[in-house]
Amino acid sequence: MAFELKGRDAAGRLGLLATPHGTITTPTLLPVINPNKMLITPTEMRRRFHTDILITNSYIIFKDDRLRHTALENGVHRLLHFRGVIMTDSGTFQSHVYGDVHLDPIGIVEFQRDIGSDIGTILDIFSEPHHTRTEAEAGMSTTIQRATASLPHKGTMMLACPVQGGLYPDLRTRCAEELSILPADIHPIGGVVPLMETQRYTDLVTVIAAAKQGLNPSRPVHLFGAGHPLVFPLAVALGCDLFDSSAYAKYAQDDRYLLPWGTEKIQDLTELPCSCPICTKYSAEDIQDMTGDARVKTLALHNLYVSYAELRTVRTAIAEGWLWELVEQRAAANPALADSVRHLRDPSIQRFLEAHEPRSKTRAIRYTGPATIFRPLLQRYQQHLMSRYDPLFPTTVVLPERTKPFSSSYPALLPLLSTLAADVVVDSSLGPVPLALDEMFPCAQSVFPDYVDTETREEANRRLREFLGSRDVIRWETGKDLPKTLHGPGFDLDVRRIWAVADVQFGHGAAAALFQGKLGVIKSKSTHKIRNVMSDGDHVVSMRAADGLFTLKLAGAHRLHAAFSAPLLRVSVCDDAVPFVREGKSVFAKFVRSCDPDLRPGDECLIVDERDVLLGVGRLLLSPDEAAAFSVGVAVKPRETLPK
Fold first, then answer.
1. 78 in Cβ contact with 47 (< 8 Å)
2. Cα–Cα 20 to 30 A to 399, which of 233, 348, 361, 594?
3. Helices (H), 393-492
4. Boundaries of domain holding 416
5. pTM for the complete prediction?
6. Is 203 noted as a catalytic residue in this protein?
7. Among the options 9, 89, 185, 241, which is catalytic?
8. Residue 61 belongs to a domain with what CATH number?
9. Is residue 90 domain-shared with residue 215, that is, in the same domain?
């Protein structure tokens, strides 16, 4: 099994999962197939939806003499007439629901192996939301024991080992940690169907986040039973990669019509608010007039079209950097989902999400409502502002928000800066934005309306108060004179900008290391923005036009390497990789030995060997825990390297 990351946003991942029957792109959907009653055959699914992976139940096959014989004789792929990837479940749910289902945990894994499943599943213990801690812990322990005993019997089949632990976050994390030590391939999060059926999405968030914090990040995560498209964006943003759906058929049997924002009864619709092939072929009245299997299949086809379309939207959102906007938009349509998004502010969940959030994005952050300002990336900005930005003066002039970048909105102020003995900060909807950081992501790369909601305004005010602390504050409007007491040696905005950005981006003290000596600032002739910064004739950094952050040059890397002790800013590689790094080749994750835990995807980093000898500078593509865990894929893209 090989799982490789190709893109990311929030904790969501675009991945490639290699299997014996092909490579699938994640996040993706596994339609549930009942071999006794195929409402839509796998062949039709492949033709209509380009389905490349599905899931069926090995217990159903095992207990039926005809199906069992055919599967053992010809394989599960020929049984289902499907050339793609097949995952099999073990019968855990049936055993839990019916009670009289008795299966051998080892035997059912061996059966899945023998019928040629690409991905099998152990017989875990299903945890219910009402289980006591004692019950949940007992089920978790048995699940881990069964996983340990089952793995030697999987052969070449991938094996899924579910994370259990009920509603107890510490149990979920502990179960995930213990399963991660084992040579499992995929980790479903089990026992969550009752939470989704009762719209307990806040509990669902708690369970997913707790499991993810303990799991090996190099393994795909499957959210068992998550078949409604409403939950896809949120679950993916939390790090889930695979979903299985029997909802498309079950809902159809109950005349329910799925939509990305909820569910409707087909009898209640006068028009079909969808443009899938089913909804462009039939009217609401046409479907209402259908009877029996014809109506069920028609609704099931629509439900699958909507489910696949929502996952295409999710993948697009990851690739283009607007997954959080999609999560917030979907949550706005469902109060229970809105509560779960609010729960993302929990400090432990915030820390997990922030650690996987890219440093910047190619697309501006767009306001959707009260949840926006609490996104991990904007929380990170405020934390770095508080810990890495040093005011120059005891007095701060606070400006009202205008168009971005803010420095261009106050042309009358700019000539005064050289004689203004005060810091200048904009009171923005993001919170405080020092004038020196107004071109840096996310300050300039955010789109907020002129009038935001009350909670956003209150949070922005709180952040401003926190930033200003006990300093003297003067609120200034254009046309008013500034106090004469502020006249004195001011600052050069270009110099102030490069110092402030360096410290906020790389850490406190980076500017002093990078810019010691005679400074030279090279600006674009067309935009007049900073492009390159020289120090004593060395080209140390370049400022990117897209996000106002620095690209680190080799001369700058030398200075930061000398000023900051390991592991700061470093990605350490094993000795085998050193010759390839010196040639400028990509650093693959399997060669990474350690990574500064404060680095984030997209960060500039120092590439060093195991003895902390500088090899080069590049851009980190993974989070630190991913760089240490993955065995395939690129971890760092070098930009400049040192020859031997």
1. no
2. 361
3. 454-468
4. 357-491
5. 0.95
6. no
7. 89
8. 3.20.20.105
9. yes
